[in-house]
Design goal:
30% of the residues lie in helices and 13% in strands. It is elongated, with a radius of gyration of 43 Å.
């Protein structure tokens, strides 16, 4: 997190020929591959070399010395950490002998490890399963209902063909009254 206001630093504290000053943190980032940091508070990590003026006012970015065949350039190391920082880390277990593949984990631990490793697959499968359980029956019911309504629709009345040339001059009411007379 960078502060809202930059620290007040003296002019020329970071030589811009060999480094780039940060705007808000008071650090000088040495140019990669072209310069190195010189001083007791230089830091190197993840391919970057820098120093903070507040922690090391005597540090400077200087041109990288040319590597010769007798003295190749040493690789950068992360100088922020010492070996003492890793004293609380357990040493790796020695490799087991053949035939010692006995798994002493409980069934619950095995299930927990499986879910931890494949949880995303399990969640996706549950999601797809729920969608199938809900939407497939709805789709089938809707398809059957629409098929049933098209089968039970009333037959269309035949319209008089235009080729017969006969038109009835009677109104529908007159046609009904004549059909009543026939009864």
């Amino acid at each position: 997190y960078a502060p809202a206001t930059p620290p007040e630093l003296p002019a020329g504290w970071c030589d811009t020929r060999y480094g780039t000053p940060t705007r808000t943190t008071g650090e000088c980032m040495c140019h990669q591959g072209k310069s190195v940091c010189q001083g007791p508070g230089c830091e190197a990590a993840q391919g970057f070399i820098w120093y903070a003026y507040a922690r090391c006012p005597t540090c400077r970015c200087v041109p990288k010395p040319a590597a010769t065949e007798e003295t190749p350039a040493a690789p950068l190391e992360d100088t922020r950490y010492d070996d003492d920082d890793f004293d609380d880390v357990d040493p790796p277990e020695p490799p087991s002998a053949p035939g010692d593949d006995v798994d002493d984990r409980t069934w619950g631990e095995k299930v927990y490890d499986f879910v931890d490793d494949y949880g995303h697959v399990i969640l996706a499968g549950l999601f797809v399963g729920v969608l199938l359980v809900i939407f497939v029956p709805l789709l089938v019911v809707q398809t059957l209902a629409s098929a049933k309504t098209t089968d039970s629709s009333p037959p269309e009345k035949e319209k008089p063909s235009a080729s017969s040339g006969t038109t009835s001059s009677k109104t529908p009411a007159a046609a009904v009254s004549e059909s009543d007379k026939d009864k």
